[in-house]
Amino acid sequence: MNTSLFLAFALMLVLEGLLPFLAPSAWRETFRRLIQLTDGQIRFIGLTSMLAGIILLMVFR
Asked: What's the domain count of the chain?
């Protein structure tokens, strides 16, 4: 179980690093837009992301 958790974390880091590596200006612009969102909008994005992840885990498990 620990190995799977560490592998998932490592994969997350790789995926998170792709956009800043491949398109730093787009990454920077994304954060500029993110700063302009309200807390509620950011929470909704986070909730949607978590639900999508849970659904994907259920589908591929």
From this structure: 1
pLDDT, position 2: 82
Instruction: Give the global pTM.
Output: 0.72
Spacing of C-alpha 13 from chain mean position: 9
Helices (H) and strands (E) in the chain, counts: 3, 0
For 2-52, write each residue's pLDDT tens digit. Answer: 888 899 999 999 999 999 999 999 999 999 999 999 999 999 999 999 999
**Which residue range forms the structural domain that includes residue 34?**
23-61
Residue 49: inside a domain:
yes
As a whole number of angstroms, the distance between CA 9 and CA 2 comes to 11
Question: Exposed, middle or buried, 27 (CB in 10 Å: 0-12/13-18/19+)?
Answer: middle
